[in-house]
Please model this.
Amino acid sequence: MGVEPTIESYGMRIGGADVLHDKYLDTVNPYTGQTWARVPDGDASHVDAAVKAARDAFETEPWSMMTATQRGHLLRKLGDIVARDAEAFARMETADNGKLYREMLGQWRYLPEYFYYFAGMADKLAGSVLASDRQNFHLYTRQEPVGVVGAITAWNSPGMLLIMKLAAGLAAGCTFVVKPSEYTPISTIELAKRADEAGFPPGVFNVVTGGGVVGAALVNHPGIDKIAFTGGTETGKRIAASAAANLTRVSLELGGKSPNIVFEDADLDVAVNGAIAGIFGASGQSCSAGSRLLLQDSIHDRFLEKLIQQTRTIRLGDPMDAETQMGPIANEPQYRKVLSSIEMAKHEGARLVEGGEAVTDIGSYFVKPTIFTDVTNDMRIAQEEVFGPILSVIRFKTEEEAVAIANDTRFGLAAAVWTKNVHRAHRVSAKLRAGTVWINAYRVVSYMAPFGGFGESGLGRENGPDAMREFTETKTVFVELSGQPRDPFKLG
Ligand code: NDP
Model:
């Protein structure tokens, strides 16, 4: 007889306290298929309470009077606590979304750097003194926190997607109400508890869990000054439309159909490795997945052969096992979507050369790494985000054709160029309509590097020097110097 797994129950975090509710949501481990934790299925009343807590914290002491340097100290402390607890966070993420434990551990060991980087930036954020064309006026600007931020995050890397928003926003002086994905809420709740431990005042970082109503209640709430969202493009559009009613600021980090372009002069073995990382890393559940592989005609067949060979060696299995290279799809709806995308591609006439089916004997929600060739860029499999381990291979002849195919998409999140020709590398990078371009690499991110999309891949940028601008408003101050009355009926 099997032992019943222990199911942990969590509360939401509102105003620094655990908040329970009589309705609960199960959170299921996608590898075992078993419920391992429960969170409250919150509603609009919880959003109200959390927004009030965040507003109170924003407007009152100690947060409102804290210096930027003091905020930096708190962020550094939170970074230290996350570093201390990286293994525990990695374990809960793997239990929640099925990503490889070693990838999650690497991620959580890296995430403290976001706190340290933005801690350092907190007291470097300054307005400027401007030259003034108005006589007797001193003119300067201030960068002030935008206010209460509603953050809605996705299930593929819940901690990282949140910290990309949180570190910059807290450094700027904002307060937060976070709505994690209903599939992966645990690390967000635990992070909010660690923020209390670090000494953030109650109400600065609130978490409302739930599914179906919480997101919309947050976006429509008049007490929210800005929404920061990561997730699917269609949801992002709905959020932007709802936010427009209150002119709530919005930043969106959405989907992609990123081109991974291999030229005939590339190091093919290295590029094969990059193609694998691009689409089969994290089982393809990455917004910047290299889901369109563009191969130059002259190396198409040779490259494909190497790619298929290497793909066949990918080990699927328990994401906690250090030998596993690909874990399950993160949740049931996504698993179904991936399988139906495979059928769609077949139906459209793409040629299946590898994978193309579920694997049912090792755990829940496994899909074989899948490669389609003879894909044309007008097919839905080349235009729609799958968010799974499905690669579309597209053939091109010339550099111009490669650029045209790469840019023939509504998305523009990322792209990669594989070539040893330095002129071509930079020439093509400049022509690609994408927020990030990798040259001879794939799937590299940094807290120092701005991240975001062109086109329908989003609005705004996270990470890097400009990220705090997303969480601030610019205020202009005119200071009259003469003390004399001015003509009240004349502008300026
Ligand atoms: P979504 O990207 O659609 O986002 C779901 C989240 O958005 C939930 O937290 C939900 O909250 C909230 N939400 C939904 N509708 C609204 C609304 N009208 N107003 C405010 N909030 C809203 O995630 P899915 O899991 O449904 O994934 C769908 C597709 O998105 C995937 O197949 C994949 O292609 C893509 N995706 C992209 C990601 C990326 O990183 N770019 C990450 C994850 C998914 P509530 O439940 O309360 O409504």
